[in-house]
Design brief:
22% of the residues lie in helices and 30% in strands. With 83 residues, it is an alpha+beta fold.
């Protein structure tokens, strides 16, 4: 399981991530915003509350919203390989 070291909120419902092994990249989450548990993140102020969960070491928001670190890692890795 991959561990997120840091996360930064960016405009347009994007996040900038760094993993503990040094992999870095940006992910666009705009397609998820407003759907299901991600409804509350439609407000950019709420989206900006993103943090690294200290227990699961993944991207999270208040309200027990989180994302799978392995999926995030794979998405960044596949973008880098395609570039």
């Amino acid at each position: 399981m991959h561990r997120v070291a840091s996360v930064e909120s960016l405009a347009g419902y994007r996040i900038n991530l760094e993993f503990t092994d040094g992999l870095r990249g940006e992910i666009d989450l705009s397609d998820m915003i407003g759907k299901g548990v991600f409804e509350q993140l439609r407000d950019q102020t709420e989206f900006d509350k993103v943090y690294v969960d200290p227990e699961s070491h993944t991207v999270a928001w208040p309200g027990e919203i989180d994302l799978c670190p392995d999926s995030l890692y794979d998405e960044i890795l596949s973008k880098q390989k395609a570039a």
